[in-house]
Amino acid sequence: MKVVLVRDVPRVGKAGDVKEVADGYARNFLLRRNLARPATPTALKEVEAQLQREEQEHQRRLDELTKLAQQLEGLVLTFNIKAKAVEGERLYGSIRDNQIAEELARVTGAAIDRAMVVLEAPIRTLGTHELTVRLSKDLTPKVKVVVAREE
């Protein structure tokens, strides 16, 4: 049976490919799980239109992330986080990735998840710390975090 794949299927093909598969495999697996459609001219057009919409959405998201990366990198964003500290440079607690993500989201107005903040270890000292924000695989701007003593 000839089918057009709606999604990527391991060892079969990628979304949009037209493949010849066994009738039972198509009926019992691919069609039931909405991974493919019978290869009719209408289905081919619909799948092509869906792939174009997904590509446009991906490109739009990539453009937004690029703008955000330029904003973060270009300004070398520095913000203060107040924390209680003992005598010297050591903090009572620590500054974690979720606190940094919340502050970045507040300052930039963009949705920044804590998983995007690359922090090798929680920050436990006062001063300036440089860290990376991973927006995507290729977009990783550096941000400076200034931890100041709470008044």
Structure overview:
- The protein has 151 residues and is of the alpha+beta class.
- The protein folds into two domains: 2-61, 3-Layer(aba) Sandwich (Ribosomal Protein L9, domain 1); 66-149, Ribosomal Protein L9, domain 2, CATH 3.10.430.100.
- Helices cover 36% and strands 28% of the residues.
- The protein is built from three helices and nine strands; from the N terminus they run ββαβαββαββββ.
- It has helices at 23-30, 41-75, 97-108; strands at 2-5, 18-20, 36-38, 78-83, 90-95, 117-118, 123-125, 127-133, 142-149.
- A four-stranded mixed sheet has the order 4-9-8-6.
- The longest helix is centred in the middle third of the chain and has 35 residues, at 41-75.
- It is elongated.
- The termini are far apart.
Give the DSSP E fraction (strand runs of 2 or more residues): 25-35%
Counting helices, strands and paired strands, the structural category is alpha+beta
* Total E-strand runs: 9
SSE sequence, one letter per element: EEHEHEEHEEEE
Give the uncertain stretches in residue-range form. none
Q: Evaluate the radius of gyration.
A: 24 Å
| Known CATH architecture of the largest domain | Roll
The largest beta-sheet arranges its strands as 4-9-8-6
Mean pLDDT: 86
Specify the helix fraction band: 25-40%
